[in-house]
Fold this protein.
Amino acid sequence: MQHSTDLQTKLDNITTRTRGLVQPDRLAITDAAVQELFATGIEDRILPIGATAPTFDLPDAAATALNSPVALNGKIIHSSDLLGIGPLIVTFFRGRWCPYCMTELEAWQAAFPAVREHGALLVAISPQLARQNDFTVQHHNLTFPLLSDAGSRLADAFRIAYTVPEHLRLHYRSILVNIPYINGDDTWRLPLPATFVISQSGKIIFAEAHADHRVRPDPQDVLATL
């Protein structure tokens, strides 16, 4: 059942507002970049349902969100520890500079009680530095772990990482999105927005990723797989 406030509706609203505010030539750069990335076939190469998920050991944010019952401590989070508790939802996002990503994380925050009701856990992963994750936690009052995947190495293991092409780097710089500063390296590696659900046996039971960053699975659809 579709809800008027589902995630994709909110993302589509961002797109509509953007198209009303941004110059057509700048919009054309983004639209072309999405098509170029899709044409690489990257969506067809992501780790599929039934595959064994890569394990990870990644640093958590150190910030504590306002009114959060969870004190994030900057420690290393081990996927094996999480899977010892229950199924694990892993959502990859590009960074706090992406309004679509932040809208998605807020949707997962709203769904977080349902995640726990299903006996599952949730982590969000991006290549941005831990201090950027700290800012994200504080500004969006998130209560689930935000992990730093330096150089998108884990994203590579899930087969969702790509290198931003030079012409798009120039575009990001022109709109003051300094990805090397945010990520702490000059690789220009980013993940596709992607969501995986990993069973306690380590197998992937849900996998979805999109070359178009304006499209994301709804948390309720993801939870239906548990």
Observations:
- Residues 99-117 form the longest helix (19 residues).
